[in-house]
C-alpha cells in the first residue's frame, strides 16, 4: 500500500463520516484517475434518498460507465471505506474499473455492530438453475 493509497482511503473514511452525519449508513468512496487525481466522490445516501441501491460504490461505478472510456476506467482505482457488497462488486466489474482498495473487511464491519443489529446481508431462499432449454433462447448468440 502506497502513501497515496492511505491518503485516499482516509478521504473515503471522511466521506463515510459525512454520510453518517447526514443520517445515512457510514460508507464513502472515491474514484482516482490514472493521473492520481480524484475523479468523483460519493457517500451512501440510501436513507435520505429512500433508495436501497444508493451505495457510494454503485454510484461511482455507474458514473464511470457513463463518463469514462474503457481504457481510462481500467486505469482507475476506487477507494472505499468498506469492502463493496455483492451488488456493488458486480457493478464495479461491469463498469470496467481497474482496482479497488478498501479499509474495512466484512468481518471487521460485522465486529463493529451491536448484538442484534441488522445483519449486513439478508439471507433469502434460492432455487435453480431451471428451464435451461427455454431460458437460453433469448441469451444464445447475444454474447
UniProtKB/TrEMBL annotation:
InterPro entries: CMP_dCMP_dom, Cytidine_deaminase-like. Residues 3-114 form the CMP/dCMP-type deaminase domain. This is tRNA(Arg) A34 adenosine deaminase TadA. It comes from Streptosporangium sandarakinum. It comes from the Bacteria. GO terms for molecular function: catalytic activity.
